[in-house]
Amino acid sequence: MQFLKQNIGYKQQLKARVLDVSKLLFLEKGVKAVKMDDISGALSISKRTLYEIYDNKEDLLLEVLHLMQKESREKFMEGRKEDNNVMDDFIAFCQFQTEFMKNMSPSFITDIQKYNKVQEYLKAHNNESKKLSMSFFLRGVEEGYFLPHLNYKLICDMMEVQRQHIISSLLYHTYSFEELFYNLTFTTLRGFCTTKGIAQLDSFMFQKYQEV
Questions:
Q1: 155 CB-near residues (< 8 Å, 6+ apart)
Q2: Cα–Cα distance between 202 and 208 in angstroms, integer?
Q3: DSSP letter (8 states) at residue 102
């Protein structure tokens, strides 16, 4: 029984290491450029051992994406203050996202479009993100930072169309992820901010570009 527990513990630790190393390699080089041999070599394990954990690269990539979403959510919540208003949360989210995307290879975004299971997962994740965005927008209206009487469901749909266009047109090969994120997100958000919201948003942007 003790041996069985130790064996299970070892496999769980190894799986965690596989995910961490795969995440770093995928983000740095893209998915296509990283072979299962590269991952097993980086971990100093046999290819056979790796395939005992993951049958194929798509299943591995899918779990890497799950891990990335989990880590992102946890790290954002760790840095969030309880008394934040909606604009504080938005600015903190943007800072976190841009920091995360700094070391992401454009090839990573291109490559994940080619996996059916991954696309199904991302579609479900985007639908969940839309629900969270709606809650965020309604909270912003209540706090007086966003204009009332606008169709925020339509705004969510429009932002999704813009995001899809960036991907389909490969704009992220021309512009950095940070530049795309800030120009899309801030111009859209500023358009439905109240005077109160614009003041806080502009103050942040002024400070940001003073530091550059």
A1: 137, 188, 192
A2: 10
A3: T
